[in-house]
Give the backbone structure.
Amino acid sequence: MQTINLFNQELVVRGEACTSSPDKIFKARASLILYVKLTDNCNANCKFCANYNSCDYGTIDLNKLEYVIRYLYSLDRLHSISITGGEPLTNPDLLYRILDIVYNVNPNIDVQISTNGYNLLRLLEYPRVNNLESIHISRHHYEDETNYQIFNSRSVASTEDIAILQENLNNKRIININTIVMKNYISNLQEIKRMLDHVGEIGVYKNGFISLMKCNEYAKEQFIDFNDIFNNLDEPFFRGHHFYSRNYCECVDGIYLTKYNKLVEYYARMVKECSCPYVNQLVYTSDNRVTAGFGGKTIYK
């Protein structure tokens, strides 16, 4: 661990690289992801949502946001920027303005957008959409109707929406599908294969599988340790890496050959505790504060 000073606040950060064993620690210069919560409003109502504990329902001050981004960039502590919510595509025009600010500060910075797919095709209106590092689309089942059930909403992305977006992007590797593994849904290796086959069929190249964070009773009941699935892979899988960040989180990756003979990159990740012993992310909240993690201590306002 190391301590850095940001906004005249001392923060304990992870000054280490992820390793193949939690017992092998390699020092690295700490850099942080800045999450921009464009809004706390959301079109969905997921039972496992961890956002309820950190809702602020403010209105973003774009000048203040630009100052924060420039400040972090000037210190060389900004690893990437992730625009999230709530659901950021409930306000596409504000999303475009935020993206313009980010790219005006640094046109080469990695920017991700996390969305459930509401207004998904409006991303094609943004002239620099192909500059994005990734668009993370939450999709928790290969069947549209089941996916709507999980989100408690029919306004999330359909299979057709994702296929149209993929077809119209110049950079075909931008889209990542993010899938929660849960006991009643994608819960075993056979279901993982069906999900990867589905993702490959619609032309997407990457699918992530995430264990629930046990931050409410529903998440605790539905939790699956991803190792129970990904330690038992069979022939269509080509294993990659298994990484640890001490004992706080771990991930695996690799490649899967679908039944349609298409290659899909897969990864799986699990955060083991809802509270982190160090800061690895900053959050710019919708009411214009910077916090040390989601729902964490305010370090700038």
Observations:
- The longest strand covers residues 237-245.
- The CA atoms of residues 241 and 252 lie 5 Å apart.
